[in-house]
């Protein structure tokens, strides 16, 4: 005895369901419209089958790069010997000298900090005077600037240059040339 069982295909119902939902989501075009083709790496085209060695879920520790860890704690003697090693201690400086301008202690190859602070203060005062005289930073002329102090007069070589006059005596460290 043979029995023939006829079952309708579920694909027709699924296709109709998907078309309905995609039509609601994208009102612009039907889901059977041409798709956008993008060139990608060839590795994406390879099937992903049977790569997993086991059926276990991956753990967050699988992607962690494991660092070396010490087997035992360093003793306080070992730590102190390492920290107090003579090559790690401060070295005595042999290149200390007195500043010829102000007399403060400084290293031979480094500008004196006290003199540099005085130069910065004078430069800031000159910049403020230029700002008041010019009316802003973007209105400065494109010529060289000469700073004249009390009792000084412009020289022949200062013609055509911007002249800033300061109402105080010229500092000893600020030379005319």
Structural class of the helices, strands and pairings?
alpha+beta
Radius of gyration (Å) = 42 Å
Count all strands and give the number: 4
SSE sequence, one letter per element = HHEEHEE
SS field, number of helical segments: 3
**Helix content range:** 25-40%
Low-confidence regions: none
Characterise the protein shown here.
This protein is 26% helix and 8% strand. The strands form 2 sheets. It has a two-stranded antiparallel ribbon. The protein has 177 residues and is an alpha+beta fold.
Short description:
With 177 residues, the chain is of the alpha+beta class.
Please name the defining characteristics of this protein.
single chain, flat, 3 helices, two-stranded antiparallel sheet, alpha+beta, two-stranded parallel sheet, 26% helix
């Amino acid at each position: 005895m043979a029995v023939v069982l006829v079952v309708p295909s579920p694909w027709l119902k699924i296709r109709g369901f998907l078309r309905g939902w995609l039509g609601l989501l994208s009102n612009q075009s039907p889901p059977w419209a041409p798709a956008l083709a993008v060139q990608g790496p060839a590795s994406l085209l390879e099937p992903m089958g049977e790569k997993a060695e086991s059926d276990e879920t991956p753990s967050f520790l699988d992607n962690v790069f494991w660092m070396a860890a010490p087997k035992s704690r360093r003793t306080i003697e070992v730590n102190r010997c390492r920290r107090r090693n003579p090559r790690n201690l401060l070295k005595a400086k042999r290149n200390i000298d007195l500043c010829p301008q102000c007399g403060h202690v400084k290293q031979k190859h480094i500008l004196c900090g006290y003199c540099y602070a005085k130069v910065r203060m004078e430069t800031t005062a000159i910049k403020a005077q230029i700002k008041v005289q010019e009316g802003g930073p973007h209105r400065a002329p494109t010529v060289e600037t000469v700073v004249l102090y009390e009792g000084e007069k412009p020289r022949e070589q200062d013609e055509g240059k911007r002249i800033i006059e300061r109402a105080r005596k010229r500092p000893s460290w600020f030379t005319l040339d």
